[in-house]
Design goal:
By secondary structure, the protein is mainly alpha-helical. It contains 6 helices and 2 strands. The mean pLDDT is about 90.
Protein backbone atom coordinates (compact mmCIF):
# COMPACT_ATOMS: atom_id res chain seq x y z
CA UNK A 1 0.00 0.00 0.00
CA UNK A 2 1.31 3.43 -0.92
CA UNK A 3 2.25 5.86 1.82
CA UNK A 4 0.30 9.10 2.11
CA UNK A 5 1.74 12.58 2.57
CA UNK A 6 0.74 14.56 5.66
CA UNK A 7 -1.79 16.61 3.63
CA UNK A 8 -3.27 13.48 2.03
CA UNK A 9 -3.56 11.79 5.40
CA UNK A 10 -5.32 14.84 6.85
CA UNK A 11 -7.96 14.64 4.10
CA UNK A 12 -8.32 10.87 4.58
CA UNK A 13 -8.80 11.31 8.34
CA UNK A 14 -11.70 13.67 7.62
CA UNK A 15 -13.25 11.31 5.05
CA UNK A 16 -12.97 8.39 7.48
CA UNK A 17 -14.62 10.53 10.12
CA UNK A 18 -17.35 12.20 8.07
CA UNK A 19 -18.03 9.75 5.29
CA UNK A 20 -19.08 11.13 1.90
CA UNK A 21 -18.15 14.81 1.59
CA UNK A 22 -17.78 17.60 -0.94
CA UNK A 23 -14.43 19.40 -1.10
CA UNK A 24 -15.99 22.45 0.61
CA UNK A 25 -17.21 20.22 3.47
CA UNK A 26 -13.74 18.75 3.90
CA UNK A 27 -12.26 22.25 4.10
CA UNK A 28 -14.85 23.30 6.72
CA UNK A 29 -13.47 20.73 9.16
CA UNK A 30 -9.82 21.55 8.57
CA UNK A 31 -7.91 23.62 11.12
CA UNK A 32 -6.91 27.22 10.51
CA UNK A 33 -5.34 28.38 8.32
CA UNK A 34 -7.65 26.53 5.95
CA UNK A 35 -6.14 25.49 2.62
CA UNK A 36 -7.42 26.92 -0.65
CA UNK A 37 -10.26 25.08 -2.40
CA UNK A 38 -8.01 24.28 -5.40
CA UNK A 39 -5.31 22.85 -3.12
CA UNK A 40 -7.76 20.55 -1.35
CA UNK A 41 -9.37 19.54 -4.63
CA UNK A 42 -5.95 18.61 -6.02
CA UNK A 43 -5.19 16.50 -2.94
CA UNK A 44 -8.51 14.68 -3.32
CA UNK A 45 -7.75 13.97 -7.01
CA UNK A 46 -4.31 12.64 -6.07
CA UNK A 47 -5.96 10.37 -3.50
CA UNK A 48 -8.30 9.14 -6.25
CA UNK A 49 -5.33 8.41 -8.51
CA UNK A 50 -3.70 6.45 -5.68
CA UNK A 51 -6.90 4.41 -5.21
CA UNK A 52 -7.74 5.72 -1.74
CA UNK A 53 -10.79 7.81 -2.68
CA UNK A 54 -13.78 7.41 -4.98
CA UNK A 55 -16.50 9.87 -5.97
CA UNK A 56 -20.14 10.03 -6.94
CA UNK A 57 -22.13 12.73 -8.68
CA UNK A 58 -23.98 15.03 -6.28
CA UNK A 59 -25.88 17.84 -7.98
CA UNK A 60 -23.45 19.87 -10.04
CA UNK A 61 -20.44 18.55 -8.17
CA UNK A 62 -19.14 15.43 -6.52
CA UNK A 63 -19.05 13.80 -3.12
CA UNK A 64 -15.87 11.94 -2.25
CA UNK A 65 -15.53 8.88 -0.04
CA UNK A 66 -12.79 6.57 1.25
CA UNK A 67 -12.20 3.35 -0.69
CA UNK A 68 -9.63 2.12 1.84
CA UNK A 69 -10.85 1.82 5.42
CA UNK A 70 -8.85 3.37 8.24
CA UNK A 71 -8.05 0.04 9.89
CA UNK A 72 -6.51 -1.37 6.68
CA UNK A 73 -4.34 1.73 6.20
CA UNK A 74 -3.35 1.79 9.87
CA UNK A 75 -2.21 -1.84 9.78
CA UNK A 76 -0.20 -1.38 6.57
CA UNK A 77 1.43 1.81 7.86
CA UNK A 78 2.38 0.29 11.20
CA UNK A 79 3.75 -2.84 9.54
CA UNK A 80 5.89 -0.72 7.23
CA UNK A 81 7.15 1.39 10.15
CA UNK A 82 8.05 -1.68 12.23
CA UNK A 83 9.83 -3.27 9.27
CA UNK A 84 11.67 -0.06 8.30
CA UNK A 85 12.74 1.20 11.72
CA UNK A 86 12.58 -1.73 14.15
CA UNK A 87 13.91 -4.68 12.09
CA UNK A 88 10.42 -6.14 11.82
CA UNK A 89 10.17 -6.56 15.60
CA UNK A 90 7.29 -5.16 17.62
CA UNK A 91 9.38 -5.94 20.70
CA UNK A 92 12.08 -3.57 19.41
CA UNK A 93 9.42 -0.92 18.79
CA UNK A 94 7.97 -1.19 22.30
CA UNK A 95 11.50 -1.16 23.77
CA UNK A 96 12.23 2.02 21.85
CA UNK A 97 9.18 3.78 23.30
CA UNK A 98 10.04 2.60 26.82
CA UNK A 99 13.65 3.83 26.48
CA UNK A 100 12.45 7.19 25.12
CA UNK A 101 10.11 7.45 28.12
CA UNK A 102 7.09 7.64 25.82
CA UNK A 103 5.60 4.58 27.50
CA UNK A 104 5.16 3.98 31.20
CA UNK A 105 5.08 0.73 33.14
CA UNK A 106 1.33 1.29 33.50
CA UNK A 107 1.02 1.51 29.70
CA UNK A 108 2.96 -1.76 29.36
CA UNK A 109 0.69 -3.47 31.90
CA UNK A 110 -2.32 -2.29 29.92
CA UNK A 111 -0.85 -3.66 26.69
CA UNK A 112 -0.12 -7.01 28.36
CA UNK A 113 -3.71 -7.21 29.62
CA UNK A 114 -4.99 -6.55 26.09
CA UNK A 115 -2.70 -9.27 24.73
CA UNK A 116 -3.97 -11.71 27.35
CA UNK A 117 -7.55 -10.96 26.28
CA UNK A 118 -6.77 -11.79 22.65
CA UNK A 119 -5.25 -15.14 23.65
CA UNK A 120 -8.41 -16.31 25.42
Amino acid sequence: MRQLTRAEEEVMQLLWQKGKSRVAEIIEDMPEPKPAYNTTSTIVRILEDKGFVGHEKAGRGFKYFALIDKDTYQKATMKKMVNSYFEGSFKNMVSFFVKEKNMSAKDLESILKELDKTRD
